[in-house]
Each structure stands twice: as structure tokens, then as C-alpha cells.
Amino acid sequence: MNCVFCRVVAGTESSQTIHEDEHTIAFLNLAQATRGHTLIVPRTHHRDLGEIPAETAAHVMRAAVEVSRQLAGALGAPGVNLWHASGETAWQSVFHFHLHVVPRFEPTDLTPPWAEVEHPVESLAGLAKEIRAWG
Predict the structure, then answer these.
(1) Facing residues of 42 across strands?
(2) How far apart are CA 78 and CA 71, in angstroms?
(3) Which structural domain, as residue segments, surrounds residue 94?
(4) Which residues of the chain have pLDDT under 70?
(5) What DSSP character marks residue 50?
(6) Overall domain count for the chain
(7) Would you state the pLDDT for residue 98?
(8) Can you tell me whether residue 52 is helix, strand or coil?
(9) What percentage of the chain has pLDDT greater than the value 90?
(10) ∠ CA(104), CA(71), CA(19), 5° rounding?
(11) C-alpha span between 5 and 8 (Å, rounded)
């Protein structure tokens, strides 16, 4: 079993679990972006967002709601970020679907990953048409 998250699920890799149910397990990330930074993974292996069944993804999101409330309550975090990356170009580094739950304590405790540039809504019409045409 070469997937570290599959080993966490199997109990053969050490982790600090803070929540689990029949579909998911949530454990503290070894690289804490902020205090309490947690990963939620499905118990079944799915490489990324392109492979995970919608029902399994829904279980992960339900766990994210619970874990977010748990972290906010236990740590006094007034905010929470959810983060997911699918694919190497999106900075995915462990190829087992997972969701980061990052408690926020101050507006400056993390740096935004991108700069937003707002476009006039009319200028997005061609892009929207291209995406809708796909399927």
C-alpha cells in the first residue's frame, strides 16, 4: 500500500485522528498551515476530483461541516477555509482525494494563493458558452 492516506485509513500509518465515521476519517495535517489544520479523506481510495463518486464526495463534505464546527468550537477559530487541489498542476501532492480544513484566527494568518482580477460580466460570455457546450 503505497498511498499514505490509505495507510492512515488502515491504521498502519500514525495519525492524530479528530473525527471519523463509516465513510471518512479526519486527522491533523503534519504540516500545520494554522493551528488545527486538518485533512479529511474518504476511506476508499480515489485519486482526485475527477475520480471520486459524487456520493463519496458528499460524505467528505458532510464531514467537513462537522470538523469545521469542531475546530471552531475547540480552538476558538472565528473562520475556516476549505481547500482542495486536484492534479499536479493544481498543487496536489498526495494523490488520494482529500480536503483541507484550515481554522483561521486572523485575516493575515494565511496568504491568498492567487490575485483576483475582476472582469466585466459581458466579457465572460464566450467562456461560459465554451464550458456549457462541453456537456
Answers:
(1) 24
(2) 10
(3) 4-134
(4) none
(5) T
(6) 1
(7) 96
(8) coil
(9) 79
(10) 140
(11) 5
- CATH assignment at residue 121: 3.30.428.10
Q: What distance in Å separates the CA atoms of residue 109 and residue 106, rounded to the nearest whole number?
A: 5
Q: Which residue has the cell 465515521?
A: 21
What is residue 61's predicted lDDT score, i.e. its pLDDT? 98
CA 112 to mean position of chain CA atoms: 16
State the cell numbers at 51.
475520480
Q: Rounded CA gap, 95 and 119, in Å? A: 33
Q: 96 with 5: CB under 8 angstroms?
A: yes
Over residues 23-55, the pLDDT tens digits come to 999 999 999 999 999 999 999 999 999 999 999
Q: Which three cell numbers, joined as nine digits, stand for 106?
A: 486572523
Set of cell numbers at residue 116: 483576483
pLDDT at 92: 87
What strands lie across the sheet with 99-104, from one edge to the other? 17-20, 24-28, 38-42, 99-104, 79-83
Give which of 44, 12, 8 is closest to 26, Cα–Cα.
Answer: 8
Residue that has been written with the C-alpha cell 483561521 in this structure: 104
Helices (H), the chain: 4-10, 54-75, 125-134
